[in-house]
Amino acid sequence: MPPRKRKSDARAKPRQKVLVLYLANSALDSQVVAWAVHDGSGKKLNTPGDADRAPYKTGLAALRDGWRLFQASQLLPHTRGEEFDLGYLKYEFFFEQIVETTA
Description:
Elements: E1 13-23, E2 32-39, H1 59-64, E3 68-72, E4 91-101
Antiparallel strand pairs: 1-2, 1-4, 3-4
């Protein structure tokens, strides 16, 4: 017997949106210096560098707008001689929102 075809399910399905903010220091109220947005709902395709302005001025502003913080980078001391190395962004914070979609 062949498998039955399902009718399309129009119910809303939860999808995750992820916001990555790189802050000037480890405090959530410090300035955003870089960011990335990833939309699992498929409603918008984001690519690196597609916006001139950060979506929020601080990590705290994202929290106040309903984003949930789920990961912060571990605070590690610099090794001697590398205190002023700017080759990476040290203060990385991951936020999420759960959105409903029918996709």
